[in-house]
Structures are given as C-alpha cells and as structure tokens.
Amino acid sequence: xxLSITDVKKVAHLAxxxxxxxxxxxxxxxxxxxxxxxxxxxxxxxxxxxxxxxxQDLSQRLxxxxxxxxxxxxxxxxxxxxxxxxxxxxxxxxx
Amino acid sequence: xxxxxLTQLGAALRSKQISSVELTQTYLDRxxxxxxxxxxxxxxxxxxxxxxxxxxxxxxxSGQSTPLTGIPIAQKDIFCAQGWLTTCGSKMLxxxxxxYDAHVISQFNNAGAINLGKTNMDEFAMGSSNETSHYxxxxxxxxxxxxxxGSSGGTAAAVAARLCAAATGTDTGGSIRxxxxxxGISGLKPTYGVVSRYGMIAFASSLDQAGPMGxxxxxxxxxxxxxxxxxxxxxxxxxRETEDYARDLHxxxxxxxxxxxxxxxxxxxDNDVAxxxxxxxxxxxxxxxxxxxxxxxxxxxxxxxxxxxxPAEASSNLSRFDGVRYGYRAPEYSDLxxxxxxxxxQGFGAEVKRRIMIGTYVLSHxxxxxxxxxxxxxxxxxAQDFTEAYKVCDVIMGPTAPSTAFKxxxxxxxxVQMYLSDIYTIAVNLAGLPGMSIxxxxxxxxxxxxxxxxxxxxxxxxxxxxxxxxxxxxxxxxRAPQI
Lengths: 95, 483
Fold this sequence. Notes:
The complex is a heterodimer of chains A (95) and B (483). By secondary structure, chain A is mainly alpha-helical.
C-alpha cells in the first residue's frame, strides 16, 4: 500500500508536526514501506473474534470523587516555558 | 566488588566491610572513566547519589535495612525522579526536571537503594539499537562499534560494563529482553500490570511494562521484589498478594516441560544464535527438563499488529508534548497552531515522528476498523496461541533476538529491518505475558547470545527458578566484557 503526498500532509497536520516538502516526500516513501508490512494483517480472517485491548480482562477500578493531590502549582510552573501570575502563557488566540 | 551479586553486596554493607558511600563512589569513579566511551548515562547527580548513600549508611547502622539498602541502582531515563533531569532520550524533555517520583523510583527510595544515575535510551523508548536517542548512541561494551540494543540500551551497557550493581528497564516490544541479550546480561519483563506505570513516561500504555535488568536471575528476583506491587495511581495496576520472587530459586527442574515454538527456529534466525540456544536447551535436558514441540501459528503477525497498536497509542500519548506546560518550545512562531507544530517538529526525532504519523493515520477517520480494530482482534489470536501452548508446557524457550549485536549505523535507513529485530519478543507484550532473557553463550565475533524464557501469566517466580538453575550449572552470566 502506498500513501499519497496529500495523505502525508493531512496526517502531519493532524499530528501537529511542521514538515518541509522534502520531509513530506521522505515520509511518504518510508510510511509506504511500513504500511506494506502492516497490510499482512488484512489477509487474516478475524470474524467473530473480540478485540483485545488488555491482557487481563479487568473492569476499570472506581474510587471516591475526592481530591487526592496536593497543590503543586509552583513546582509545575517552575518548569514551564512561559508563565505569568500563575497562568501558562501561549500566543493570543482571541482578538 | 563490582562483580559481586546484590546478595553479596547487601551482606558486605550490613557487616560494614564497605559503606554505601564507598560503594557509590566506586561506581561513580568507574562511570567517569568509562561513560565517555559507552555513553550509557544521560544524567549523573553525584551530590544526590552520595547524600542517599550517607542516609543508607545510617539506616544500615540502625538495623532497619532492606536487601537493597545502600546498593547503587541505575534508572532508565524514562522514570520521573524528583529533582532529576528526566529526558526520555528526547530533545523534547531536554530541560524537564521532574517535580515528582515515579512509583518505581519511590519503591527504590523506600528500600534505601541509591539512584546512581539516569541511563540512556532510544527516544521515548522507540527503537531497538539506542541510536534514536537525542543524547547520542550507546556503545556495546563487548565491541564499541556495535549497538547495545534498545530501547533500554544504556541500562544494558551499564550493567554489562559494571557501571552499576543493577538497573531498571522498560519493555513495550522487547526493550528489556533484546538489549539484555545483545549485552550479555539478564533482564525480565513482568506480566503486564505487575509493576506500576505511574511516572513512567508513556509510549504504548497497553504494552508498556517496567522490569529489572541485572547480571543474574537471583539479582533480578531481589529487584522485582522492590518494583512489583499494587499502586492505585496506575489504573491497570493489578491487586494481588505480595510475592517473594526469590522463593522458588532453588527448586530442581526435574520434569519441567519446555515448549519450543517451531516458528522461533525458522528462517530469519542466524546460525550462531540458533547454535547457542540449542546448546542451552541441551543443558536444560541435563537438568531434567522435558522438551515439547509447540506452535505459535499467529506469532508471525505480531510485528504488523504491533506497528499498528503501539504507534496508535503513542500518537495519543505524545500529544501532551505541545510546548505549553513543560519541555521544549520552539523559539519562534507566528500563532498557537504554529507554536505546536514547530515545537513538536523540532523537539521530536525522526523515528518518534514516524511513529506518531503511523498512529495518527491508523486512528484517522475511515481507517479505524481496518487497522486498529483488526490489530486488536489478531492480538487476541496471538494471545490464544500461548494459552493453547501452556496446556502442554510450563515455560516456552527460544532466541531473544534473531542476531547478535549489529554494527552502529547498519540498519539506520531501513525502519522495517530495525522493527524485525523484535520479531521474537513482541508477541509476549501483545499477550501481556512475562518474558526474560539470560545469556547463553557467544556467537560470531564473540558477541553475546540471549536465551528467551517466556512464562505463563504471573509465573515470574518459576521463570527466575528456571533461569537461576541454568546459571548454577553454567557461567555465561558471569562473563564480563574487557573494557
């Protein structure tokens, strides 16, 4: 199976990865090779087989809806790229 | 001292033959001598390590010690450790000083072990050669022109070169077992859910599992005793009775049924590896084991299934790296969207981007059933093969990797060739089973070969017994590289 340049550009956008034209072309070739390997799956008859997401078929544990974490805002913001007055700063999105 | 087992080191520390400060300094000195050649550590923090060693010495004097108190352990740089740079091998986290401890790190801290340093790894654990690390390749201590395997390559090289007493790794598709095999050490990936993933930077959450890497099965048992256990902060952590993983080490192997899957000895396996593995099987027969021929007919599909499921989960997990709250942010951008795209493009390496793109594609509109769902169905078929096999055998054995360590750069341009290095290990992760690798000889160019031992769910104590009995009868595990 091969992906088109349009496919690769769309995927790069969905994944929020900036790519140059040259990188798109290289990615197209490599992803196409990988998808040829993946295509081996399509020949397998899986009718009636339940999908398996985890090895142990467990149900999700539940707990009381109570606060368990202490406030570590200062520690978390100390490693942030840009903060101000306890807020994370990003480029303006609303005019 | 650097060749001593964890049990011997513990005894020496408790009887005051050596202090933890002295032992830690011995390793730090060795690291400062050899790390420039091997590049097995990304971060050292001698001040913290030695402060921990001082505290351990006090604890040893007070008689409140555990088997690992005072012992220097290296941590794969995927585990968040408070106050330590935690990069996961990526430029994306080049400045990430973790504000908290992973569960595994807390467990070692509580045991009084010393955090000796953070080991190099493939970026976000995506790789089988340690060449995708932003911090440079790790060299195999048996031959520095060869790879140590990956993704826990820094850990494997450090253990083999005696740059730590033992260390941690993580295994999503073979990342503990394959580097253990290529560096001639022992490593164990437990049953999925036995070790908490809290604070372990996520790659593919339904497959990721942490485990110990060391020089013997006995050492691994002591390490796993510290690492395993329920943790409510990991929603997939299993609530089970506490086990002593060393309890069965001394049981004889009479009547042990070893299953040999024919698919693991077919085309694609190098001759030198096959010979060493067959010699190990012959040794097990001498120890009283019975050989059973088995088949895992769907195991050949594990590579394609893995390269749908793992990238799909990775593309979702890695969406958190957006340059807003922590990690790398591009220096220049025009707006918010541009900031995301440039920060991610500059912060991630080529292999990580490749896998994010595979994952994004297979999860995108219209493709979910054909890829993700189909892969999950085949995953069940692969797991059922093992269930069938365990009706007629107790453990499964085979090679860990199809070849010994390859040359640095050899598989650089061909991702598919690299992915096939994990052909014997991936099925174990898909099924959620425990698997380990122990040294079983040397192949061409005197490079180590690993024997893979796959157990049934929660059979870690038996696997360690099986490995330990082999290590009592042979000395492959005690061979050290000349470096």
